[in-house]
Write a structure and sequence with these properties.
six-stranded mixed β-sheet, 16 strands, globular
């Protein structure tokens, strides 16, 4: 596994939009994100299409790929954090030279939602560690929430320890003068098997189910080869969804399993399901039980991963250790191995 050099204050963060761009009505929010990240001690450069959005994308697939490559090939850029996800990142993948990317000095890529499509491809094809974590627009409110600041810590340290949140909630709307999140619900990580104590470890891999599932069966997801390469470590799958109902989650997990994606799996961390609904009398727990329960590995759900804030920062490719004790959890990740 190849890791980017540890991030340092004064480094340049590149912002490109490989999926959706930022419409004019939200320029104030991205301006505030630039200001807030600069206040943390980093410089920012944007590519030309970041502040565009038509037909759900910032530009055509070739230009989006070229702008990403311009940042990745720029030796002054230490990390790339897109504004947010979107719908159609997959259509730019054909314009990426994965062989060249695997030969270049690795850089940090950080983001969630559709950005996890790109992160998953880079990690499984090129052995580049990537972060399924905060998007740049998360940082565009009155201040940056401590969970989002953690993204910079994870990219700056060889070993990090993150704990489950005390409260979770929702984004507080578009008013950038407000605190970013309205956290008013008690967090409770849960074990699918009802265990009160669990410990497992393995190499972290995952992303957003809604988008990563589109890679199944394509040339961009050599998952079997990736699993064989690191099978001695075992794997922790970290997955979350943003617009799937219970039936869709079950079907997707079933498909991933049938394609052999969960071989050598040591456990699962499943994020809180956003935009979720039951499918008739079939609920979320049914989806998890029907697809994962008989694998005989720990399954922890309602975790701080994904679209319902706050979120922990997951490094695809890192060695992770999960400690679960009556809902209190610690996620330790080690880089460089």
């Amino acid at each position: 596994m190849k890791y980017a050099r540890l991030l340092q204050k004064g480094d340049i963060i590149g912002v490109c939009a490989p999926s959706s761009g930022v419409p004019e009505g939200l320029f104030a929010r991205i301006d505030n994100a630039v200001k807030n990240v600069q206040a943390l001690g980093y410089d920012i450069i944007e590519t030309n299409s970041v502040r565009r959005n038509t037909k759900c994308v910032s530009n055509n697939p070739k230009i989006r790929a070229d702008e990403f490559m311009s940042l990745y090939e720029n030796p002054k850029v230490a990390a790339i954090i897109p504004p947010w996800g979107g719908e159609f990142l997959m259509d730019m993948l054909q314009f990426l030279d994965l062989k060249r990317l695997s030969e270049l000095t690795p850089k940090w890529i950080c983001g969630y939602s559709d950005i996890s499509t790109l992160a998953f491809v880079l990690s499984t094809n090129c052995d580049i560690a990537t972060v399924h974590g905060s998007n740049f627009m998360n940082m565009g409110y009155a201040g940056i929430h401590k969970s989002d600041v953690e993204a910079f810590h994870v990219m700056s340290e060889l070993e990090t320890e993150q704990h489950n949140s005390e409260y979770y909630g929702v984004f507080s709307g578009w008013d950038i003068s407000k605190e970013i999140y309205n956290l008013d619900k008690s967090t409770q990580w849960k074990s699918l098997g009802g265990e009160t104590k669990l410990y497992f470890e393995g190499r972290m891999i995952g992303g957003c189910l809604d988008t990563v599932c589109k890679l199944i069966g394509t040339r961009f997801a050599p998952v079997h080869t990736f699993l064989e390469r690191y099978k001695k470590d075992g794997f922790i799958w970290t997955l979350e969804s943003c617009e799937m109902n219970a039936g869709e989650i079950y079907c997707t997990l079933w498909q991933m399993r049938e394609c052999g994606w969960f071989e050598y799996c040591n456990g699962f961390l499943l994020g809180r399901a956003d935009g979720y609904s039951d499918t008739q009398d079939f609920c979320l727990i049914d989806a998890y039980r029907n697809s994962l329960a008989d694998l005989g590995v720990p399954v922890i759900y309602d975790t701080d991963i994904g679209h319902i804030p706050p979120q922990i920062q997951i490094v695809n490719g890192a060695i992770g250790k999960i400690e679960f004790n009556n809902g209190d959890s610690i996620v330790t990740q080690m880089l460089g191995v």
